[in-house]
Every structure is written in C-alpha cells, then in structure tokens.
C-alpha cells in the first residue's frame, strides 16, 4: 500500500485520502482486488480514527469484512487495540461483523470472551445472537473458550443469556453446552480436568 495512504489512515487525514483518490481513482479498487490485505480501514480501526474509518467504509464497504495477511478483520484489530468506540461504530455499520471468522476461525465474539470484555460481550449477543453458535477451527464454542481461559464471569453471562433466550428450544444444551471440541471434550469435561467446580454450578440451576 502507498506510504501516503498509510499515513492518511494512521493520522485520520480524510483530505489526504481524497487527494490520493483524485490522483489515482483506482487506488482503493486495486487494494480490494487483493484477497488478503492490510487495508486503510484496518489501519484506521487499529488506531481508532473513527471519522476516517467510516469514510473508508462508505467508499469501500467490502473492506469491513476483508482479512489482512495475518488473518484479522478491522474489527479484530480494533478489539486487539482496545478501540471500543471503533468497534461500536463498526457494529452500527454491520452487526454481522461480530461473526467474521479470522485466523483459526476466531470471531470478534470469541475475542471478547477470551478477554472477558463483559460489556462488549453483552452488546454482541444483543445485536447478533446467532454469533453464539460460531465455532473455532478446533470445534470450540464460546463456552469452551471461556472455561479454557478461566473467564468464569464471561461463562456465566453466556449461560445466563442462552437460558433466557433459547429456553423454548430443548436443543440448546445438546448443541452448545454438550458440544465436543476437536479432542472430544465438552465444557463439563474441561471443567473436570481443570477442577472448575463453579462451572458445574451453572448446570444445576
């Protein structure tokens, strides 16, 4: 990517962005043609330049779901860099970004579970409830990730939300809480291996 485009994204300089487009109307198109690319949107999301970020999305909405060469979307990078406002603005643009699978099939929802960002976890579940079904490349559910990373509060939020939202469906326990990962371990198996009695308590209510 052109150094001046990187500079525009890093500094949030929208005027420079349009100067570059004026000089080369296909500059963004060429970036979009590359399957995996660290786009100006990735850069802006990483540093939290929201106005530039939204301007870029208007010009190239496809950038919002594009993975860079490391396997991360702009929302993944915003989360990794604690750019909460950027995450929320991306969410307003497309709630489905919560389900974009990055490297190892990790989604933004998986990220907030692993890091126990409870506010964003609740927000993601509210706007995109289907995201709770997404699994990693190791067939891990969000429940597996919460227990494996010792994120008990996140686990409680997930179980509570699941029981409130899917109480009419008898399949929820079988499909999610009883789902085996690639090693054949359910959430309860992992809790037993790691001696996590508080996890068991959630299954007794």
Summed up:
With 205 residues, the chain is mainly α. The protein is 57% helix and 0% strand.
Write structural notes for this entry.
With 205 residues, this protein is mainly alpha-helical. It folds into two domains: 93 residues, Ankyrin repeat-containing domain (Serine Threonine Protein Phosphatase 5, Tetratricopeptide repeat), CATH 1.25.40.20; 109 residues, Serine Threonine Protein Phosphatase 5, Tetratricopeptide repeat. 57% of the residues lie in helices and 0% in strands. Helix 9 packs parallel to helix 11. The radius of gyration is 19 Å and the shape is elongated.
Outline the fold blueprint:
Layout (H helix, E strand, L loop, with lengths): L2 H9 L2 H10 L3 H7 L6 H8 L2 H10 L14 H7 L3 H10 L14 H7 L3 H10 L14 H7 L3 H14 L6 H6 L9 H7 L3 H5 L4
Helix pairs in contact: 1-2, 1-4, 4-5, 4-6, 5-7, 9-11, 10-11
> How far apart, in Å, are the first and last alpha carbons?
54 Å
The first-level CATH class of the largest domain is given as Mainly Alpha
Mean pLDDT: 91
Would you count the extended β strands for me?
Answer: 0
Under CATH, the homologous superfamily of the largest domain reads Ankyrin repeat-containing domain
Number of domains: 2
**Count of runs of 4 or more consecutive helical residues:** 14
Structural class: mainly alpha
Strand percent estimate: under 5%
* Corresponding CATH architecture of the largest domain: Alpha Horseshoe
Output the radius of gyration. 19 Å
Please give the share of residues in helix: 55-70%
């Amino acid at each position: 990517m052109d150094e001046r485009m990187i500079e525009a994204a890093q500094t949030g300089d929208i005027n420079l962005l349009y100067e570059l487009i004026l000089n080369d109307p296909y500059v963004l198109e060429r970036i979009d043609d590359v399957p995996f690319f660290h786009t100006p949107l990735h850069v802006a999301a990483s540093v939290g330049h929201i106005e530039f970020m939204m301007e870029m999305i208007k010009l190239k909405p496809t950038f919002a779901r594009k993975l860079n060469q490391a396997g991360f979307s702009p929302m993944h990078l915003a989360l990794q860099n604690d750019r909460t406002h950027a995450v929320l603005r991306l969410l307003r643009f497309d709630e489905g970004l919560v389900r974009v699978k990055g490297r190892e099939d990790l989604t933004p929802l998986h990220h907030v579970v692993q890091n126990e960002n409870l506010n964003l976890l609740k927000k993601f579940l509210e706007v995109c409830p289907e995201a709770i079904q997404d699994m990693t490349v190791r067939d891990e559910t969000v429940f597996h990730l919460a227990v494996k990373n010792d994120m008990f509060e996140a686990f409680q939020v997930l179980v509570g939300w699941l029981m409130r939202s899917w109480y009419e469906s008898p399949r929820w326990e079988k499909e999610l809480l009883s789902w085996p990962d690639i090693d054949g371990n359910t959430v309860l198996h992992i809790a037993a291996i790691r001696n996590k009695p508080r996890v068991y308590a959630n299954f007794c209510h």
